[in-house]
Design a protein that fits this description.
This protein is mainly beta and about 140 residues long. The protein contains two helices and eight strands; from the N terminus they run ββββββαββα. Strands 1-2-4-6-7-8 form a six-stranded parallel β-sheet, with no helix packed on it. The protein has a two-stranded parallel ribbon with strand order 3-5. It is globular. The protein starts with 9 loop residues before the first strand and ends in a 6-residue tail after the last helix.
Length: about 140
């Protein structure tokens, strides 16, 4: 790590055509906000953000993410805001998010993804009280 960056609290790498992040590449212990919006990320691997123990805001919106490994957000237990809008994943396993106990706000493109984040106080987009049959059938609680 470059010593001058050890106290860095906010980092924007938005709009940089980044298509992958190596595990351990982000060794910034004081970082609180990371903007990776509008890049080319497709997969978030286990512990990608594990060295960012003080991270409270992570913005991954408008990438091409199709998959999250189960421990993709391991090590960032202080995370309060996560933006995943504008990505290409159809489903997200609730186990990916379950260890983010301090998560207060999460942003998806589609409301049905909120079922993976039932512990989060604010999940967007807000539901309209009506959902398609496909989304209702995806939820085991609502199946007949």
């Amino acid at each position: 790590m470059i010593p001058q960056l050890s106290a860095l609290q906010t980092l924007s790498l938005a709009k940089n055509q980044i298509d992958a992040i190596e595990v351990g590449a982000l060794d910034l212990p004081a970082l609180e906000h990371l903007y990776l919006s509008e890049n080319q990320l497709t997969v978030i691997r286990n512990d990608t953000f594990g060295n960012l123990t003080n991270l409270v805001g992570l913005f991954l919106n408008s990438n091409k993410i199709t998959h999250f490994e189960l421990d993709a957000f391991g090590g960032i237990g202080k995370l309060a805001t996560l933006n995943l809008q504008g990505n290409k994943f159809d489903r997200i396993d609730r186990r990916v998010l379950e260890n983010l106990s301090n998560l207060l706000h999460i942003h998806f493109t589609e409301f049905h993804h909120c079922k993976a984040a039932l512990h989060v106080r604010v999940c967007e987009p807000k539901g309209d009280g009506i959902s398609s049959n496909r989304h209702l059938l995806d939820n085991p609680v609502l199946r007949a």
